[in-house]
Amino acid sequence: MLLIGDSLSAGYGLEQAQAWVHLLQNKYEETNKPITLINTAVSGQTTDNALLKIDAWLKAHQPSHVLIELGGNDGIRGFPITLIQKHLTELVTKSQRQGAKVALMVIQIPPNLGPRYSNMFVESYRKVAEKTGAYLMPYFMTQVAINPSLMQNDNLHPNKKAQPIIRDFMYDEIDKWINNQVYK
């Protein structure tokens, strides 16, 4: 499973062994689930930045599944909603053309750009999923971000204590996604 993400999946401010992706891979191995996570998440990554690299990632890894956790950096910077949607759509369709099942995680951003922009931003994930047939996955930070004891001092990135919570959330959500694919 190829994970295309940003600092939230790259383990910003943490050692890699503490980050949720590493913890999730360990859980898959402990439970004998045949899932290998290939983490291409990079701190600061935007949708347009990922588009520059996705062809190489798909060719190198030939994943059966692609999970896209992107857009937060685009939204924080106030990128146009139509551009974000275009980039997300391209990321999904490029992955699908290579035969991968795709999940698109809904991302939420701090409200500093106003409710109109924030609402349009979140809504764009549903629109892209409907247009492409991608599986829409809920945001993994919803429960973590509201608890200051689970966040780093920047109040944007989850701390070490939050990582097992995110791991367990993602374990369940990825399981729902993969099992959902069986019935489609």
What does this structure look like?
α6 links the parallel β4 (101-105) and β5. This protein has helices at 7-10, 20-30, 47-61, 72-76, 81-97, 115-132, 142-145, 163-183, and strands at residues 2-5, 38-39, 65-69, 101-105, 135-137. The model has no long low-confidence stretch (mean pLDDT 95). The chain has eight helices and five strands, in the order βααβαβααβαβαα. Strands 2-1-3-4-5 form a five-stranded parallel beta sheet, sandwiched between helices. It is an alpha/beta fold and 184 residues long. The longest helix has 21 residues, at 163-183. The protein starts with a strand and ends with a helix. The protein has one domain (2-178): Rossmann fold.
Which features characterize this protein?
single chain; 184 residues; alpha/beta; Rossmann fold; 8 helices; 5 strands; globular
Architecture (CATH level 2) name: 3-Layer(aba) Sandwich
How do the strands line up in the largest sheet? 2-1-3-4-5
Q: Name the overall outline.
A: globular
CATH superfamily: SGNH hydrolase
Query: Any idea what the radius of gyration is?
Result: 15 Å
Distance between the termini: 19 Å
Secondary-structure element order, N to C: EHHEHEHHEHEHH
- Indicate the CATH class: Alpha Beta
Largest sheet: 5 strands, parallel
CATH topology, anyone?
Rossmann fold
Number of domains: 1
Average of per-residue pLDDT values: 95
Question: What can be said about this structure in brief?
Answer:
It is built from 8 helices and 5 strands, in the order βααβαβααβαβαα.
